[in-house]
Amino acid sequence: xxxxxxxxxxxxxxxxxxxxxGLAKRYRAERRFRLYGLTAILIGLLCLAILFISIVGNGYxxxxxxxxxxxxxxxxxxLDQHNLSTADYxxxxxxxxxxxxxxxxxRSDKRQLYMLISPGGxxxxxxxxxxxxxxxxxxxxxxxxxxDDVDMLMKGHxxxxxxxxxxRLSDKQLAWIEQLKEQGKIxxxxxxxxxxxxxxxxxxxxxxxxxxxxSFFALLVTLLLSFPIGVAAAVxxxxxxxxxxxxxxxxxxxxxxxxxxxxxxxxxxLAVFLNFFGFPRSAPxxxxxxxxxxxxxxIIIASRAALQSVPPSIRExxxxxxxxxxxxxxxxxxxxxxxxxxxxxxxxxxxxxxxTAPLLMIGMVAFIVDIPGGLTDPSTVLPxxxxxxxxxxxxxxxxxxxxxxxxxxxxxxxxxxxxxxxRRKFEKRW
Length: 430
Known about the structure:
Layout: H1 2-59, E1 64-73, H2 89-100, H3 107-114, H4 120-131, E2 139-145, H5 148-154, H6 171-182, E3 186-190, H7 193-196, H8 209-240, H9 245-257, H10 262-276, H11 284-308, H12 312-320, H13 325-353, H14 357-361, H15 382-390, H16 395-426
Antiparallel strand pairs: 1-2, 1-3
């Protein structure tokens, strides 16, 4: 009997030793797994930080613009009193520049002098005269935008101490800029034009307002169509549709559509809305319709998940007190599922805001200067505007591309933050 007990104790000790050895091995594996996970998170955060630092470092200076002060004499001889809108405002700028630098004589030197001022200076004087014609014949100090090369020099993107052939500004132009600095006639101000103007061939005159308005109209159409249609489809599939092979086929197709590349929806919009229905190209209406097709699967899936999260006891209690199935859905289930539906909708809208490929297919890549005033006016959107600027060779457009990306990221973060706030505020925990 004692011999049997001793054998049992030996077996038990061997088993415990084996277990301890295995535990130590599993603990080491767990520590390694945690280390791998932490390393992956740190690498991801590092890459994200590098991306943001690169974007901000390239773009924050675009929020400033260099301006030159001109003592403008609104010469009646240059301004046609009968047609002020077509008067020679460019000649007015040139005349005042020659007055500021009387030593400039040659044609080539004058051309270099005129290049210090942006073409927007003439448009600014035109606006002033049209707004108040009484300034004709008076001397007024006006700050006008400098050319993009001057702006890049003032922001430190161009070096002045290199050979003349290696920079975009000549020695004479640098001397005139230094003279303006000494006189206090050159300075950097907040770049309001970037937020209030449309696109332009001149970097110093280009802004994101036209693209922002186009994005707003396109997202408005997307929201007005995708939210009610998506919610109605989710409610029908989850609460009313019979469970058979047809509804199973519809559900599978909805899930597949959520994973379809966005450019496919652009091809569909090109074939249906432009070629078949004949809608105008590069219009927010068509862009909104295409984005609606793209976001509908996401909203339907999120809405169905929100409906499934409502406890069955809510439905049973409503039906138990005599409510019809429609009343049960409308008055009890839908209000409880609405926060999840709104969250899915906002996430889908955020995805639509950042899309470029489907909108390129319907012609929203056009160069649009005017601010769109309606759903059918030609326009572009922020991601496409970024794409267009990124393809421009001027250094100033690189700066504005990064600045526009910063603005787009701010909008996306605000939309995702709104989704989180709505979920936390209205979500019911059972």
